[in-house]
Amino acid sequence: MTGAVIAIIAAIFLWWFSTGIILLAVRKADRSGFHLETVLAGLPLLIVGVWAVAMSLTRTDVAGVYMGFLGALAIWGWIELAFLAGIVTGPVRDACLPGLSGKPRFFRAFGTVAHHELLLTVGLLGLVLASGGADNRMAVATYLILYLARIFAKLNLFFGVPRINMEFVPQRLAHLKSYFRRGPVTLAFPVAITALTALLAVCTERLWFAGSDATIVGYGLLTALAALALLEHWLMVIPLPDAKLWRWMLPAPKTMPKEER
Fold first, then answer.
1. Is residue 46 within a helix (H) or strand (E), and if so which, with residue range?
2. Closest CA to 221 of 141, 116, 157
3. Mean pLDDT of the 41-62 span
4. Which residues of 227-250 are buried (b: 16+ CB within 10 A; e: fewer)?
5. Which residues have a Cβ under 8 Å from the Cβ of 148 and sit 6 or more positions away?
């Protein structure tokens, strides 16, 4: 199972490193004001990701599995960069109105991220169509785990969780904080935990019974990704200093003049 161990370690490192690089790029864009330029500079990441996915579809070896995984991460990473830089967000860019609740609050909150959600969904549909009948579907499986985890996370931040890390919310998305709700967990939390635990169990079972080197590596990557998604949700209720994972590598946020605050 050496291949599985290497794959799990690789997935954890890539999750940590890619998250840190995106946060670093966004923090520097906040300091310089070059948000659109930062997103455009990241376009090669998207192009390489699409190329890697395309090349992986007909390959069933270990290299093909890693290409599909990395390609999906690259596509996802660029979309996240465009969102966090404030370029692809939604038509609503204002804070939540005082006293707003129920459906009006939900639809207004969705309006803040609608374009981002649409782009993520387009990416998923594109991978589903491209992977139809393909020998290697690693890319779409990777993207789907990320997609499900993100939907669950956003719903829990909206409905309420005890712990919300506001430290890395970019300046151009500061209005999103008003739509987060810090408080007791709601039904959305056990639903998310149950679904992600089931996903992790399936990936772990497939890894345990995997036969070829390629399937061992593939399910090792997916198992690690599912475990990280589950951990991300538990960190919404367990008081652990997860922000320290990236704080040390980021420059201090830009201090805004009093008249701009």
1. helix 43-56
2. 141
3. 95
4. bbbbebbebbeeeeeeeeebeeeb
5. 195, 196, 199, 229
- Separation CA 24–CA 244 (nearest Å): 14
**Distance of alpha carbon 130 from alpha carbon 254, whole angstroms:** 42
Taking the complete model, does pTM exceed 0.90, yes or no? yes
Instruction: Report the distance separating Cα 76 and Cα 207, nearest Å.
Output: 24
Query: What is the spatial distance between Cα 15 and Cα 10, in angstroms, rounded to a whole number?
Result: 8
What is the secondary structure of 67-86 as a DSSP string?
HHHHHHHHHHHHHHHHHHTT
Cβ atoms of 196 and 230 closer than 8 Å:
yes
CA–CA distance, 100 with 203 (Å, rounded to integer) = 41
pLDDT value at 256 more than 60: no
Cα–chain center distance at 137: 19
- The fraction of the chain above a pLDDT of 90, given in percent, is 77
Q: What is the SS3 assignment for 20-41?
A: HHHHHHHHHHHHHCCHHHHHHH
Residue 169 CA to residue 55 CA, distance in Å, equals: 35
| Amino acid residing at 13 | F
